[in-house]
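Appendix C reproduces, verbatim, an entry submitted by the partner laboratory led by Prof. M.T., so that reviewers can inspect both the input and the predicted structure.
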Amino acid sequence: MMTYCAHKGLRSDDWVSSSDIRNSAGEDILKTMEVKSMQTKVIQCINRVRCRKVTDALGNCDPTDIYILLPKGKLGDKLLEGIKKEMPDIRTMDWNIKFTEAGRKKRSSKFEDSLIHYFANMNAGQYLAKDIKTHIGVSTRQWKRLIEKLKDETSELFKSMKSSGVVLVQSLKGRGSTTIFVKA
């Protein structure tokens, strides 16, 4: 912004925040300045590695591999365009990354563990859900989340409870409904 004002003169806050203000390419000035600022930061980061160290009299440097994830879409394209403009000899290559969640364990809430542990120590029979809710000390909001997971046949909680021989049974909906757990 300071550079712009140095060339064009001081502007008011209203002028800068107005979405009607466009640059020569027809883009919002503030968005353009944000992209330019990001481009500058990325280029500075790239130059902090070995490519900034000059190795001969011509100003060349050793080849350097840099891996960077840029956002998809227009923003990523503009960032890459700016990098290529400022670093004309840079060579870019796409690389495919597949992010998987295989190594990531889904966290269960302490109340899920409490519910599983509660029924592990119980005899076969029917148990009122409201009594269990009170016994394990879960809030109404968290209890609703637990019930949703217990209804979802793909959830880990559902599978764990089913393997323990426990099922959730709801009679009716709304007022007058009764929710019970049945342990076989």
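Strands lie at 125-128, 166-171, 178-183. Additional entries are available on request from the coordinating office.
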